Amino acid sequence: MINIVKKEKVKKTNDERILDQHHIDFESYSFDFLGGRQMDSSKEAEELGTDERSILKTIVLQGSNGDRDYVVVCLPITFEIDLKLVARELNEKQLHLADNKNLINITGYVHGANTPIGINIRKGFPIYFDERIQEFEKIWVSAGKVGRSVGVKREELVTLVKGHYINIEK
User: Fold this and answer.
1) Domain residues for 132?
2) Does some domain include residue 4?
3) Per residue in 99-128, pLDDT tens?
């Protein structure tokens, strides 16, 4: 008797659909973040076969010019952000982290799922990338869902979101 196992089809996220609509090739990667399988960046990079500095986190910052003054900064998950330096780079008087409890209202994503793809396309917030990622041809960002990432050619993503490179850390 032959046992036929039907392969489970993974439903694309809205952000993966955006990449499809713009004819941008990408690789999807899922990990069981909610099931207790939280891995460190070096382990994740090892599974992806990439340098951990090519895996980016997306940080939403609020400026001092009112409720709609938001910018998004993407930097390697192993790096820290210097808010004073970034404020100077962007000619902002002051920048601080956006309220995590209110991220869903600000960006449309929960904490851990923010991605430059949807935030720029849907909200129009300016996107800035750590200039140190320019050495990588391919980078990884959230796919808009906790536990899901996409690997995409760096320049295609930067072009899609009209991103700019800045200095993030001294």
Assistant:
1) 14-166
2) no
3) 989 999 999 999 989 999 999 999 999 999
